[in-house]
Design brief:
By secondary structure, this protein is an alpha+beta fold. The chain has five helices and three strands. The chain has one domain. The longest helix has 6 residues.
């Protein structure tokens, strides 16, 4: 798969870029409604994609080799689905041919999150949300 084909798998949902909390005892992952400081809360696109790893050192750069270890990826994530040998959802832009079909179908966090710069770390548990 070429790099542009790989990048096209991203549906733009923004769920991988919301902050997550992990229960130390159970290793269960909890999603929040708090987006990375580089995530545009309306478009669900990275504001500095090219330099994201420099600006946010714990940002994960997805590669086909590392997907098995990313158990925290959303169940609807195209990278995860392809890795698991499953089909893309019917709302995915590669299926619909519509660039913003993820947002139109309600499968993104667009308009439903706040940026991490506006939330104190101690308040993060108050922002747990089911996506």
């Amino acid at each position: 798969m070429s790099s542009s084909e790989w990048e096209s798998l991203c549906d733009g949902c923004g769920k991988c870029c919301v902050l997550k909390l992990e229960d130390i005892d159970t290793e269960e992952i909890y999603y929040t409604d708090v987006g990375c400081k580089l995530l545009d809360c309306e478009t669900c696109r990275c504001l500095n994609y090219a330099d994201r790893k420099k600006l946010v050192p714990d940002c994960v750069v997805l590669t086909a080799d590392g997907l098995d270890a990313l158990h925290w990826m959303p169940k609807s994530c195209a990278y995860r689905l392809v890795n698991e040998g499953l089909d893309l959802p019917d709302w995915h832009p590669l299926v619909t041919g519509i660039a913003n079909s993820t947002q139109l179908s309600g499968n993104s966090v667009s308009g439903q999150i706040v940026t991490e710069t506006s939330v104190a770390e101690a308040d993060m548990p108050d922002h747990i949300r089911e996506w």
